[in-house]
Backbone:
């Protein structure tokens, strides 16, 4: 079982390594967010919290990047189906779960690597992280966010038959979730009817947890944050697993 | 126990019957060919045997295991080369084989040794560490075959292994398949090349529209439609034809050539010479009926193996790769 998962994972790692340039190009967008938006608004208005806007924004951008990367990497199983490699795995004497877990770990690895690059760049830009003690909490949050959204991507991929479907999911689900998560602004600033959306959005709690661990700013109790993320991860793993097995 | 047992297999896709009541048994060590035109149901049958599709109806056993209830054990017993490309082209040839070995629980040393063996077999050692992306279609095909053999399966499915390959490469692959016979591997091969089935297979099932229309060894099949065609040129065709006719042959003269049919031409030709006496025989030749003649005989229609079909199939493969 472990060997099977590793075989699937190893392939993902090799592919990731071959595409290492992409790892760099996909951090351009978060970098622009931090470098331009972050600095532009840094002293623009009085924030309803201690500290500067850049430090507030960084955890949000981190979560946003991981959500994108994870979802996309989950969806790449479609390519396996299109290009036949999935068949190679499906006729092998291994469990379907091993394929699923191996692919999931591949996506999680990619997302966490990307997160790490952003953290390093943020430190260079002068973001005030809490310190060494923030690392375990941030890694845990990154792990939960990426597990949840890789699984979500897998679920989507199992149902999806075309690339248009991919655009639909990104525009109608992922983008609104990110915009309503408080990644870019304190949710206190929103009108109350939008706050309902924020509260219902599970990603809000992921952003909140990340912000708590990274720079010590939070709106909710971090235990609640993590509970929501764990429940979300498990729900998406089950959904992804179920749809993947069925397809 | 048989290597493969299929009983009353039916597979429907949205009401369309791709496989329509196939029954057959394949012995261990046999090279068996499913021969039929595009859309006959060959790939569908193989996919069911390889547990990728579930039968709509019927009982199917591979290596003694039921493909529905014991799919895991079936997968342990088989190797497969798919009709459509299924390599990871961002990996090197060696990496593709290594991952395959891992998926089949081969130990490290065993993997390393076997990778060299199969790469040598398909003559890709020099390109072992190139990305598959940079391979030509024929090289990819050879690598797929190498991968199918990597874990030494007892039963091997080859779905159109030589589709779109040049004659030389095709001959190479035929040689590998011959080698497998010596190693006692059971091979189920699909093809729409008559020549391929004829040359390699111990037994052939001709299928059309999801049904088996004829089953037997290539020579049995060809014998079953009435034997060879013999053509004779000689100094006096009329006289010769008369002699042959009075000796029990059914002789016809076409374009100054005498044509007779015989069950076994090799046996009849010496008799023809003996009967000729003072008539000078300038040339004598005979043609065995081909599997193509068999196909025409049993389906009542010409075999749809035109160049266009093949080009279409190759194009389709390329599109899939993009
Ligand atoms: N997934 C599918 N959904 C619907 N119909 C299918 C599916 N797969 C195959 N078919 C249909 O089943 C029939 C048999 O297809 P199959 O691929 O088994 O043919 P084949 O003998 O392998 O042909 P070829 O020589 O072109 O590979 C065809 O009519 C095909 O359209
Ligand atoms: Mg086919």
Residues:
């Amino acid at each position: 079982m472990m060997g099977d998962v590793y075989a699937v994972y190893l392939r993902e790692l090799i592919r990731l390594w071959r595409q290492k340039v992409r790892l760099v190009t996909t951090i351009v967008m978060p970098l622009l967010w931090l470098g331009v938006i972050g600095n532009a608004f840094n002293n623009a208005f009085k924030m309803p919290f201690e500290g500067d806007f850049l430090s507030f924004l960084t955890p949000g951008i981190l979560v946003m990047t991981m959500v994108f990367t994870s979802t996309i990497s989950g969806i790449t199983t479609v390519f396996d189906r299109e290009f036949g490699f999935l068949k190679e795995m499906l006729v092998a004497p291994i469990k379907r779960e091993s394929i699923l877990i191996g692919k999931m770990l591949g996506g999680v690895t990619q997302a966490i690597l990307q997160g790490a690059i952003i953290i390093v760049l943020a430190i260079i830009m002068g973001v005030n992280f809490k310190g060494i003690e923030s690392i375990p909490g941030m890694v845990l949050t990154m792990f939960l966010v990426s597990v949840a959204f890789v699984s979500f991507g897998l679920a989507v991929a199992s149902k999806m038959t075309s690339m248009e479907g991919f655009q639909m999911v990104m525009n109608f689900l992922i983008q609104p979730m990110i915009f309503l998560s408080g990644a870019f602004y304190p949710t206190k600033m929103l009108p109350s009817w939008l706050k309902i959306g924020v509260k219902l959005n599970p990603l809000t709690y992921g952003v909140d947890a990340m912000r708590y661990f990274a720079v010590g700013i939070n709106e909710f109790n971090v235990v609640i944050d993590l509970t929501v993320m764990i429940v979300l991860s498990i729900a998406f793993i089950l959904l992804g697993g179920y749809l993947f097995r069925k397809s | 126990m048989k290597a493969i047992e299929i009983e009353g297999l039916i597979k429907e896709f949205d009401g369309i019957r791709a496989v329509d009541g196939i029954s057959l048994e394949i012995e261990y060590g046999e090279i068996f060919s499913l021969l039929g035109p595009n859309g006959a149901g060959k790939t569908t049958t193989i996919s069911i045997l390889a547990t990728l599709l579930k039968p709509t109806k019927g009982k199917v056993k591979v290596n003694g295991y039921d493909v529905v209830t014991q799919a895991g054990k079936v997968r342990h017993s088989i190797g497969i080369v798919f009709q459509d490309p299924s390599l990871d082209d961002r990996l090197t040839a060696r990496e593709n084989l290594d991952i395959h070995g891992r998926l089949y629980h081969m130990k490290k040393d065993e993997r390393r040794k076997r990778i060299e063996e199969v790469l040598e077999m398909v003559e890709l050692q020099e390109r072992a560490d190139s990305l598959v992306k940079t391979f030509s279609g024929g090289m990819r095909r050879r690598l797929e075959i190498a991968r199918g053999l990597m874990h030494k399966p007892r039963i091997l499915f080859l779905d159109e292994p030589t589709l779109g390959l040049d004659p030389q490469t095709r001959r190479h692959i035929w040689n590998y398949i011959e080698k497998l016979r010596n190693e006692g591997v059971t091979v189920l091969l699909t093809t729409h090349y008559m020549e391929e089935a004829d040359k390699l297979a111990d037994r052939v099932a001709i299928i059309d529209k999801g049904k088996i229309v004829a089953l037997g060894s290539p020579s049995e099949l060809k014998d079953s439609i009435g034997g060879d065609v013999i053509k004779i040129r000689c100094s006096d065709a009329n006289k010769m034809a008369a002699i042959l006719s009075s000796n029990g042959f059914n002789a016809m003269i076409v374009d100054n050539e005498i044509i007779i049919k015989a069950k076994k031409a090799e046996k009849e030709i010496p008799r023809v010479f003996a009967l000729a006496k003072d008539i000078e025989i300038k040339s004598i030749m005979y043609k065995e009926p081909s599997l193509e003649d068999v196909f025409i005989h049993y389906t009542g229609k010409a075999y749809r193996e035109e160049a266009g079909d093949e080009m279409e199939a190759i194009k389709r493969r390329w599109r899939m790769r993009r």
Observations:
- Confidence is low (pLDDT under 50) at residues 304-310, 316-322 of chain B.
- Residues 4-221+304-309 of chain B form a domain with the Rossmann fold fold (CATH 3.40.50.300).
- The longest strand of chain B covers residues 16-26.
